Amino acid sequence: MGSSRPAVFGQAHGVPHRQGNRRRERLMDIGIIGAGNVGSALARRLTEVGHQVTISASSPDSPRLADATTGTGVTAGEPAQAAAAELVVLAVPYTGIADTLTGPVADALTGTTVIDVTNPLGPDHMSLRIGHDTSAAEQVAAMIPEANVVKAFNTVLAPNHARPVLGGVRQSVPVAGDDLVAKKTVQELGTQLGFDAVDAGPLTSARYLEPVAALLIQLAYGGGAGPTVGFAIARD
Q1: Fewer CB under 10 Å: which end of the chain, C or N?
Q2: Which residues pair with 26 in a beta bridge?
Q3: What separation in angstroms does the CA of 221 have from each of 13, 127, 162?
Q4: Do residues 87 and 112 touch, judged by C-beta distance below 8 A?
Q5: SS3 106
Q6: What angle do CA 227, 229, 234 make, to 5 degrees?
Q7: Is 126 left (phi over 0), alpha (psi -120 to 50) or beta?
Q8: Nearest Cα to 91, choosing from 27, 156, 145, 7?
Q9: 123-144 pLDDT, tens per residue?
């Protein structure tokens, strides 16, 4: 696979860098393909910490796209524009992945770090379509073999992207990928957003991370716990 495009330190298209604990944070031009609940939530959070974000939807007239960009500082664009960013988040429904990763979008992703936040949910949104010997992330990587696909943020329910700490516990964001530079970039991004970013090994680990998301959905919406539940890794 191609190497990751270098991230911008200090400024991203005129956005001054922020200082935090005397550490220069890495600010980037980020594209998000998909303006649903997760894509929109990530767009807002990434903008809040100083990144320049372009988000796209299946239609430029999408009400969700309007909601994601109105008064948020997030820019609306076409999918190919979002795909041309330094780092790209794929946040479309699982059933829409194959139609999305074609033509100019796929071409633009060559050499780019792509964060796959999708979960292969079934029609009931409570079960998984695939598992055991593959994952949505591995399927994405097969569709865009020249990109550096990293699985991350799929274990965070949409409302909780704005609340990395739940009940006094910091949510963990496992990060799985085969390109070490791309994976480190995504881990740093998770830390910037306030999560406990954890190296989860190679991309095949997505086979275990996607069921974690399904479990949280079961707890939140099937078991009645509500959406304020999250995943955390305890370690001593």
Answers
A1: C
A2: 9
A3: 40, 12, 19
A4: yes
A5: helix
A6: 165
A7: alpha
A8: 156
A9: 998 999 999 999 999 999 999 9
